[in-house]
Amino acid sequence: MSPVTFGAPGTGTTAVVAGTGGCLPARVLANDDVIAAGALNTTDEWLRTRTGIARRRRTTPGTGTGALATAAARAALRSAAAAPGSTPRPDLVLLATTTPDHPCPASAPEVAHRLGLNGVPAFDLAAVCSGFVYGLTVATALVRGGVCSAPLVIGADAFSSILDPADRETAPIFGDGAGAVLLRRGGPDEPGAVLAADLGADGAGRDLITVPGGGSRAPWPADHDARCDHRFRMRGREVYAHAVRRMTASSRAVLDQLGWPADSVRAFVAHQANQRILDAVADRLGIPPERRLGNLSELGNTAAASIPLVLADGSARNGTEPGARTLLTAFGGGLTWGSTALTWPVSEPRITPPEPETDNSRRSNASWLPKHSSTPPIPSTSTS
Amino acid sequence: MASETLVHSADPVDQHLVTVLQGKFEVAPEDIRPAATLEDLGLDSLAAVELYVTLQEQWQVPLDDSEANIGLTVQQVRDTVHRLRADSAGQGGTA
Asked: So where does this one cross the membrane (chain B) (predicted)?
């Protein structure tokens, strides 16, 4: 699509980030743990130098994406509640994920239910690692169109549920987690305002990043036929070139749309895929290393969660002040890609552990607005 | 001569190749010889793709990323760029 501007400065209405939250499972897997689990022919040193990843988080068995998403959403609500001004009640839940709790139905309605938001529209969005940027763009357009005024946008994935532990190309790369933002209607001059976006897709590259089986084209057979590959597969070398080109071009499109010189961007948050892809894109754009925010070494690639987890990560912030020019860019399966320009929000982010799973998740009496005292205020991805 | 480095070549493709290999991949200039493979120069598979992407951007030629691999020699890479540049020039330079 052609890049779009949301709300001409001083005149229009757009969506503003009111709160930011994240959810990280407590379980930490070091490179050696992943190598041992899959009997992988690689080393800790190779993974650190070639991918930039040292460790990642994993959910415990039985804890799904919905539990991560719910916790991240609660953290975003706490973040908003602790910020100056009133916190709007969420009136839409959008969950970007590739690993929903079930093939059917979507996970967003249950997340809304757990949050005490029964009745609000809730849906999943499938754009793999571009999911959060897609979701943020869709939600902003829905705010501008009057469909809602305070959407919760969540990026959440438990890729451990679809990884092949013996696949060296993917098993060490991905981690589990969730990130969320609460948006509200506001002006483009406010800190946290979403200002422009660019999205794209190219289905010719469908098989570069894929779970080949288990869908309607190759259904999961009742006898668990071994020929039906239901694990996540990625052709990393080919993905590299597409990712570098698309994220660079999309980022430039958004910067040009706003007339922002690259050196005016204070916070560059790219999908945390691989340090070499991130550096290749940022080098092409001319964004210096200290303005590239990330936590890849600690969390790996958390798919749809990676960008909001960087936004929620106090230790990755590197002094970014509210109102600072911020550029998000992502690339993922589909192929899909997208970029969003915004300014850094006022609210302080929160990070929490996952929600406990319940038998039927019937927590309809839960308040949508949680107490803020129950969450540690400073998120950190460092591990001990 | 096959053993000469490309450092003193007047050809613009050679010069660019040397600049990129030196600047982006930290290859010692004396090692950049036509018979050297990208692996000899210390590039891994992603670095080979990055080299191809960089050459495409510089010369606006349709280098095929999927052909980028560490077994290619410097001579093969420069020949491919030269051939694609000639092809695109033959088509009015709008590759």
From this structure: none
